[in-house]
Amino acid sequence: MLPQDGIVRPEDVASVLPPEERLAQGPVAIAECFQNIPCDPCYHNCKQGAIQEFKEINDRPQIIFDKCNGCGTCMSRCPGLAIFVVDATFSDSEAIVKIPYEFLPIPDVNETVTAINRAGQAVGEARVVRVQNTKVQDRTVIVWLAVPKELMLEVRHFKVRGVQ
């Protein structure tokens, strides 16, 4: 459980996932913010109006999936790195998982990395498809990973090979 070991329970993850029908329509953000803390920059930076207005500053973000176009603007504004974008329509066998990343080294496009789940365990390989790194992102790089479709809701981080 999150407060004891830092690992989110499956039922908590299930409560923030978009429905299968929405996943099949293209990129969509998922806010895996599981603690009530005073934070709301995702809401203020979503130009699509896809993040429900907070009643209180300590509320957790609620994404209105039908309004989300998966642009990822919210990702680089989240200080907790708790928002991800998934795109199940990337190919027949792979999905894209866009991951906020604030470590070095920054991976290269086409590099193969080790895909990591929420518990910090390696779950497979992923290919870096794109690396977004602009000044407006304020040093939060967005790494696009191509992962097997069955891992798109599991992969939430990665490890660059050869880095200890």
From TrEMBL:
PROSITE patterns: 4FE4S_FER_1, 4FE4S_FER_2. One of its GO terms (molecular function) is metal ion binding. Keywords: Iron, Iron-sulfur, Metal-binding. Residues 59-88 form the 4Fe-4S ferredoxin-type domain. Gene3D superfamilies: 3.30.70.20. It comes from the Bacteria. This is 4Fe-4S ferredoxin, iron-sulfur binding domain protein. It comes from Desulforamulus reducens (strain ATCC BAA-1160 / DSM 100696 / MI-1) (Desulfotomaculum reducens). The lineage of its organism: Bacteria, Bacillati, Bacillota, Clostridia, Eubacteriales.
